[in-house]
Amino acid sequence: MNKRTDWEKIEKRICEECNNIIIHRLKEKYNEYKKRRFCSNKCKMKSLSKLFIGKKSHNNRQIMRVCKNCGRTQMVSPSFSKRPFCSRRCMAEWFSRNKKGENHWNWQGGITEKESRNILYDGYKEWRKKVFKRDGYKCVVCGNNKSGELEAHHIKPVKTYKKLILNVSNGLTVCKRCHRKIHYGKRI
Prior knowledge:
By secondary structure, the protein is of the alpha+beta class. It has 5 helices and 6 strands; from the N terminus they run H-E-E-H-E-E-H-H-E-E-H.
């Protein structure tokens, strides 16, 4: 079978994008519906890209959105237009600057008392270190010695025995689990 004799007709056309001449061979059964308009795929894609400038293929209705943090404008679909930030990074930056203290959504007027926070009284850190050192950096109940798990526990409560707050003999080294059991669960 000879390739040249297989084709019946040769037709010259002009590429719709770059105006180069295209040699188009028509076959009997294809000549009705297969007609080349472009010389290459590159020209075809250029032509198609001109049709969709500024539009996204999945949604032709775009709304302009301005980021609340950086001020960057974007064209987004309607479902994303209510989101005030362009990225999670911008959202985190904005919240870290604007949502502290009285501006935080869960602010309750500074109701935390200084006495309820054991870190806020002077000398606590030194007392804690002395208790840990005395007990060999191990839980006295179960023997756990993991560094992030240990806590210092007051044997006599701080509320009623304020004079014994910084007394090393009033302290015990316990792990978080045993500390929870002492306060909320079974007494050990």
